[in-house]
């Protein structure tokens, strides 16, 4: 019944949507005083409930179109919808958007994989037993939050939590939890805005977070969380290092929220975390349960693989072929899904390229990106855009790529490959796998000019809109607008001052080499004291890096912040970084080795040590560390290149085994999507000609051409200088050295 609202502006769109509704499994209920009093409507509601129970329709979408009706109206059955979503909507555009979002959700769920995979759960018997023993206790104790963690994305943390909660009757099968994300640069302000983008408490937009104390922000966050609890909601948080920190501690603001007495014996949060928390400390606090999700066992791997083949209706594969793939899988659920995807596309090709599946954990990003680039160019562009923002809405994607079947099918492909998740409420916002996002950004991949132009157009249009309205309508557009205001040098309204965005802006400027701007912004941010400790740490860290880069002795005014009785890792690393840029390499090495003494696996210290040793010509000394770096991150082109140099430039005869390794390293670089890969490949091929094939003329030809073609001249210059030096070609050496000084950075 549409008696309370008119749709004149969207009539054409409305007609199209109603046409779609006739063909789908969605029942839309427009709620008004008249509709609730209508016997015909009540009969339709009862019929809809019956159809949902019998799986004839997928869901019901209730929309209040009468300002006098609230979710608490006794005529609205309790089963109809989540109370915080049952709010009056007067804008037809928002109504149409909600209907389109519900249709999208049904289409995704209807997909053969997405429907069955939700029901498909294999293994984790040890973790399930542990959960059941801990949740069923003599004290009737209930945790405030549960943590499932593993560094690798796609291990099945969220699936595990849903299934143990269902098995323990803490949620039912049809329940969809509220999902928000907290990344490593975000803080309590983002947490508040994200929750409020779902629950829409009007007064939140009135707060001036630049003036509110940290304690006040924590109270505001508690208030929103308590509203969700009153609606019997459970909050799932995908935590990419913003709550469980890399040092295994829990961030202060979250600790203060969960320690509120109102959350005692009340399961409120489920954390899907990247880092391992301090489990001993958490056990003493008795607020949480913690589970590490390991790789699947061999038997579990086989079972999941066979179940997925059945879901994909690939039952005609021979026993021998099934065993061939099972023997190559290593227990990562996302790898198993990827293998089945490859088999569905082409069985023989999947067998031929089995190394792509075997090396999935190491080469996940490059393998998936190359596959998408080859098979769906639009999906490839979409994934690059997703990597540029923490969260992006469907609306933004449709504005950039077009609201059409091509865009939708491209997003469906990405979803089937498990490269993104839907977050916040419903199927409106997308978050890219952080490992993939990091790889794309490190590779400096950019949108095609056509789509970059469309994205810039969307950004400019948002800049002209009222920020309050943007926040009400689309969280991702709100964050994008503030980010663009920062980059455009516009003044952000004080109430929307979000430190995490300032931090991200600082990092962008740092990566561009704008160190004076970094120092200025960091000092401005540190002048405020109402931020949590993690924001202060991140700001101080970037400030000291910028001071080290600029060889500014003010570095020493801030380095003491990182001195810690229990852990001096950052303190030692930063001192090493400062001395390297002051060209005191031996002093830098001292501190980097001290950092490794605190934490032997610190990758940045290892990388810095390798770079210094290579710059000093100590190739033999650098070899083992360069190899370790490479084996830990096989797709990192700088690790590949360093390992290559440490082998090839040693003053030893290259063995046949080493020749094979060098060839594989060149091929690895060629497969990389990194923007610098082509530049580095030319240099590696040139050095291979000289050191392995003993062809000086060919080597110099390749490297001189690289010097002309490469965007970065440093790589071929260093390669040529080393060869000239070894061959005693003093004139050529002096001429090239004079051409451009080498930047040791």
Tell me what the structure shows.
Strand 5 (235-240), helix 10 (252-258) and strand 6 form a beta-alpha-beta unit. The protein has 745 residues and is α/β, with parallel strands linked by helices. 59% of the residues lie in helices and 7% in strands. The protein is globular and about 95 Å long. Among the domains are: 8-110; 131-292, Rossmann fold; 298-358; 368-497, no CATH class; 498-562. Helix 35 runs antiparallel to helix 36. The strands form three sheets. Strands 4-5-6-3-7 form a five-stranded parallel sheet, with helices on both faces.
Layout of strands and helices, then pairs:
Blueprint: H1 11-21, E1 26-31, H2 33-37, H3 39-53, E2 59-64, H4 92-110, H5 112-117, H6 125-135, E3 145-149, H7 157-167, E4 178-183, H8 188-199, H9 214-230, E5 235-240, H10 252-258, E6 269-273, H11 279-285, E7 288-292, H12 298-311, H13 319-326, H14 333-345, H15 347-352, H16 354-358, H17 360-375, H18 377-388, E8 392-393, H19 394-401, H20 405-416, E9 420-423, E10 429-432, H21 434-442, H22 449-463, H23 467-473, H24 475-487, H25 499-511, H26 515-526, H27 533-549, H28 555-558, H29 569-581, H30 585-598, H31 603-615, H32 619-632, H33 637-648, H34 656-671, H35 677-691, H36 696-709, H37 714-726, H38 730-739
Parallel strand pairs: 1-2, 3-6, 3-7, 4-5, 5-6
Antiparallel strand pairs: 8-10, 9-10
Helix pairs in contact: 1-4, 8-9, 9-10, 12-14, 17-18, 17-21, 18-20, 18-21, 19-22, 22-24, 23-24, 25-26, 25-27, 26-27, 27-29, 29-30, 30-31, 31-32, 31-33, 32-33, 33-34, 33-35, 34-35, 35-36, 35-37, 36-37, 37-38
């Amino acid at each position: 019944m549409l008696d309370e609202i008119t749709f004149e502006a969207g009539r054409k769109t409305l007609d199209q949507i109603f046409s779609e509704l006739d063909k789908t499994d969605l029942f839309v209920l427009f709620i008004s005083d008249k509709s609730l009093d209508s016997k015909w409507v009540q009969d339709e509601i009862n019929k809809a409930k019956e159809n949902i129970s019998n799986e004839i329709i997928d869901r019901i979408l209730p929309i209040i179109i009468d300002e006098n009706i609230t979710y608490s109206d006794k005529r609205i059955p309790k089963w109809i919808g989540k109370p915080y979503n049952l709010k009056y909507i007067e804008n037809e555009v928002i109504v149409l958007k909600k209907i389109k979002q519900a249709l999208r959700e049904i289409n995704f769920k209807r997909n053969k994989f997405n429907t069955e995979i939700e029901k498909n759960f294999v293994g984790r018997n040890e973790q399930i037993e542990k959960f059941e023993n801990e949740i069923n206790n003599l004290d009737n104790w209930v945790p405030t939050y549960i943590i499932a963690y593993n560094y690798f994305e796609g291990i099945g943390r969220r699936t595990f939590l849903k299934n143990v909660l269902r098995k323990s009757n803490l949620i039912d099968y049809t329940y969809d939890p509220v999902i928000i994300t907290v990344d490593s640069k975000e803080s309590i302000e983002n947490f508040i805005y994200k929750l409020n983008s779902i629950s829409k408490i009007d007064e939140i937009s009135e707060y001036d977070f630049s003036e509110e104390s940290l304690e006040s922000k924590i109270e505001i966050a508690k208030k929103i969380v308590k509203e969700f609890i009153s609606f019997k909601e459970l909050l799932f948080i995908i935590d990419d290092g913003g709550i469980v920190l890399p040092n295994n501690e829990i961030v202060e603001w979250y600790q203060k929220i969960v320690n509120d007495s109102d959350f005692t014996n009340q399961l409120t949060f489920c954390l899907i975390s990247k880092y391992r928390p301090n489990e001993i400390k958490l056990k003493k606090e008795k607020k949480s349960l913690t589970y590490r999700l390991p790789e699947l066992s061999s038997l579990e791997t086989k079972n999941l693989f066979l179940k997925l083949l059945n879901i994909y209706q690939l039952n005609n594969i021979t026993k021998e072929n099934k065993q061939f793939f099972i023997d190559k899988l290593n227990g990562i659920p996302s790898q198993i899904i990827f293998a089945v995807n490859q088999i569905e596309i082409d069985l023989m090709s999947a067998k031929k390229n089995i190394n792509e599946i075997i090396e999935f954990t190491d080469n996940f990003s490059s393998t998936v990106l190359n596959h998408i680039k080859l098979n769906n160019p639009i999906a490839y562009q979409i994934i690059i855009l997703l990597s540029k923002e923490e969260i992006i809405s469907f609306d933004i994607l449709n504005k950039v790529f077009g609201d059409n079947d091509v865009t939708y099918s491209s997003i469906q492909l990405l979803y089937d490959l498990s490269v993104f998740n839907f977050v916040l409420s419903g199927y409106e916002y997308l978050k890219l796998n952080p490992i993939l996002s990091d790889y794309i950004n490190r590779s400096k991949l950019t949108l095609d000019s056509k789509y970059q132009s469309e994205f810039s157009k969307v950004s400019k249009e948002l800049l002209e809109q009222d920020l309050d309205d943007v926040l009400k309508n689309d969280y991702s557009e709100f964050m994008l607008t503030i980010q663009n205001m920062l980059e455009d040098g516009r003044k952000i309204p004080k109430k929307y001052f979000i430190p995490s965005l300032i931090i991200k802006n600082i990092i962008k400027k740092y990566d561009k080499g704008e160190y004076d701007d970094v120092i200025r912004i960091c000092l401005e941010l540190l002048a405020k004291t109402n931020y949590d400790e993690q924001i202060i740490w991140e700001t101080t860290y970037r400030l000291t890096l910028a001071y080290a880069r600029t060889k500014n002795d003010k570095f020493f005014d801030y380095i003491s912040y990182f001195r810690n009785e229990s852990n001096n890792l950052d303190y030692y690393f930063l001192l090493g970084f400062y001395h390297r840029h002051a060209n005191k390499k031996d002093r830098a090495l001292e501190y980097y080795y001290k950092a490794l003494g605190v934490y032997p696996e610190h990758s940045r210290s290892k990388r810095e040590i390798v770079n210094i040793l290579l710059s000093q010509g100590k190739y033999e000394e650098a070899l083992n560390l360069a190899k370790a770096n490479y084996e830990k991150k096989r797709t990192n082109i700088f690790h590949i290149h360093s390992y290559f140099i440490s082998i090839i430039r040693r003053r030893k005869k290259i063995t046949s085994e080493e020749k094979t390794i060098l060839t594989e390293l060149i091929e690895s670089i060629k497969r990389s999507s990194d923007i610098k890969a082509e530049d580095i490949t030319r240099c590696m091929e040139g050095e291979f000609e000289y050191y392995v094939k003993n062809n000086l003329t060919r080597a110099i030809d390749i490297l001189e051409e690289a010097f002309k073609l490469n965007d970065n001249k440093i790589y071929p210059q260093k390669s040529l200088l080393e060869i000239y030096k070894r061959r005693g070609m003093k004139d050529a050496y002096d001429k090239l050295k004079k051409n451009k000084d080498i930047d040791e950075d």
